[in-house]
Amino acid sequence: MAHYAVGDLQGCHAEFMALLARIRFDPSRDCLWLTGDLVNRGPDSLAVLREVRALGPCATVVLGNHDLHLLAMAWAPRTVRRREPELEAVLDAPDSAELLAWLGSRPLLHRDRALGWTLIHAGLPPQWTLAEAEKCAREVERALSRDAAGFLNEMYGDQPDRWSPTLKGVERLRFSINCLTRLRFVDGEGRLLLAYKGTVADAPRAAMPWFRHPERATKEHAFVFGHWSALGYLSEPGLRCLDTGCVWGGALCALRLDREEEPVMLPCRGNRRVTD
């Protein structure tokens, strides 16, 4: 049995199928982790959702910010300032309700103690322990399952930008969702710097990648994540970033997690310009 993780698909169905063929993925025996952002910007988000859902229990998906945006378009449309044309096909599909219900039930964080890796889409604030990260992820998941429209109506916004265990209600949920689905950089005090999305080399002076904060409480744990095409493939002790910018003309990345192997990179044709 092989255990693979694959980076952000963002609607790139043809590349996804080609990559699964390249690694000879067999859903009857192998496991697949997906770093989130299944949809948006690429040409066929609907086919991606259908394909991944059809894989059944062998596929584990965490929610990304683009996945949540699709859910907001469907379930809380008045709060969405920008409707994404690439997602309209999902909303208009005859199986839309089933696909959205499946997507909305995906976790924000998945931890496999036996494998020794934890799957997230974006990042964690330096103050969180892994236990706190799991607790906050479960709180968001419960909010989505109990009152998706109510939660999604309050989801957008950059505040609060610093963790406190005293955070409650909508502010606590928004902070958690911003970390798990949007975070790239923090400052020295652990504040979320959500506005900058570029490279580490060009980052503002006070900014550092979330995983390089000197007081990060999760240093002893291993994480697989995506969300950061400007970072690209990253392999450091306990860290693997798999967003290699398929939709921008980069590559789609698969990495085997149960043993040491080089990543498999499938060059992609790209469907969007980096300036989009």
Give an account of the 3D structure:
- The protein is of the alpha/beta class and 276 residues long.
- The protein has one domain: Metallo-dependent phosphatases (Purple Acid Phosphatase, chain A, domain 2), CATH 3.60.21.
- Helices cover 30% and strands 15% of the residues.
- The chain has a 5-stranded mixed sheet, with helices on one face.
- The longest helix is centred in the middle third of the chain and has 24 residues, at 130-153.
- The radius of gyration is 17 Å and the shape is globular.
- The N and C termini lie far apart (39 Å).
- The mean pLDDT is 95.
Short overview:
The chain has 276 residues and is α/β, with parallel strands linked by helices. 30% of the residues lie in helices and 15% in strands.
CATH architectural type: 4-Layer Sandwich
Estimate the global geometry from the Cα principal axes. Answer: globular
DSSP helix count?
A: 7
Largest sheet: 5 strands, mixed
Low-confidence stretches: none
**Succession of helices and strands:** EHEHEHHHEEHHEEEEEEEE
The spatial strand order of the largest sheet comes to 3-2-1-12-13
Strand content: 15-25%
What is the straight-line distance between the termini? 39 Å
- The total strand number stands at 13
Taking all Cα atoms into account, the compactness measure Rg is: 17 Å
CATH class: Alpha Beta
| Number of structural units classed as domains | 1
Helix content: 25-40%
Structural class: alpha/beta
**Mean pLDDT, as a whole number?**
95
CATH superfamily: Metallo-dependent phosphatases
CATH topology: Purple Acid Phosphatase, chain A, domain 2
